[in-house]
């Protein structure tokens, strides 16, 4: 259903994103990404690495790194996918927020809410330059 390919949206060193290999209907489960949670007080160590840009809030007291395709979904303020934290299964579950066509890149809003237009850290950095 999904694959990793080169993304035109990602301007990082790796330029990867997650793409649909077939049409995906709104509400359909796309991926269950297992997590590696860690206490927030350990995040200062992650902040010194490239992984800081890929960490997700995981409840009140923890942060998590996602496995599988989880850390490869790129950001959009108009996403076609969303995610929910599934604490009992220790996964982030990604769902189609809109119908997604085969070949289309699957995008989430890094703010955690599909409608949240608050500028993210990388957009704030661009405006400060």
UniProtKB/TrEMBL annotation:
GO terms for molecular function: histone H3K37 methyltransferase activity. Residues 1-111 form the SET domain. It comes from the Bacteria. PROSITE patterns: SET. Signal peptide: none annotated. InterPro entries: SET7_MeTrfase, SET_dom, SET_dom_sf. SUPFAM superfamilies: SET domain. This is SET domain-containing protein.
């Amino acid at each position: 259903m999904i694959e990793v390919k080169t993304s035109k949206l990602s301007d990082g060193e790796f330029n990867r994103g997650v793409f649909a290999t077939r049409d995906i209907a709104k509400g359909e489960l796309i991926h269950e990404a297992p997590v590696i949670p860690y206490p927030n007080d350990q995040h200062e160590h992650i902040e010194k690495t490239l992984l800081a840009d890929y960490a997700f809030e995981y409840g009140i007291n923890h942060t998590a790194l996602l496995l599988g395709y989880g850390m490869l979904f790129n950001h959009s303020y108009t996403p076609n996918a969303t995610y929910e934290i599934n604490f009992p299964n220790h996964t982030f579950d990604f769902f189609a927020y809109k119908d997604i066509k085969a070949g289309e890149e699957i995008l989430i809003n890094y703010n955690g809410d599909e409608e949240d237009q608050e500028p993210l850290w990388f957009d704030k950095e661009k405006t400060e330059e």
